[in-house]
Amino acid sequence: MKGSFFILAVLVLFACSDGKVDTSQVQTEMKAREVKVVPEAKILERAFQLGDSLLSTVDQTRGLSKAWGVYQSWQISDITINCSIHSFKTLYEMEEKEKQVFEAYRYSAENKQQPDPNVQRLPGEIMVYNAPYLKEGELLGMWSIKLPRKYIILTLQE
Asked: What confidence score (pLDDT) does residue 48 get?
């Protein structure tokens, strides 16, 4: 019994040192994990920026030669982002909010107006960036890029 007490006392003495521990790394990590409230306007603005940026990387000239639907995908970390193209000549399965935007784009095409890109919030923490699909000045359909809300918020904190 005295032997185990002696060993325990020695271990405690070695564990307690006079050296100071640098806690700045731990504090930085704790600050990064802090829950932050991000205003919805900032999330929408960032989704718009990301959508513009991703759409600018797409080769839009081959839109009609490729089958309509998922046009291009990006794999960023563990997140997949899909860019779809929807023609006014075909019916697609879409979220209700996407259908409303699609119909607004179709109305604009029929009335020779050019709609602006926009961002909508879909059910299930998804934001969708929509932009007109134009070919030689004619509005033929709609680009649709679905962005996970979590991804958008994480890019705000970088």
From this structure: 95
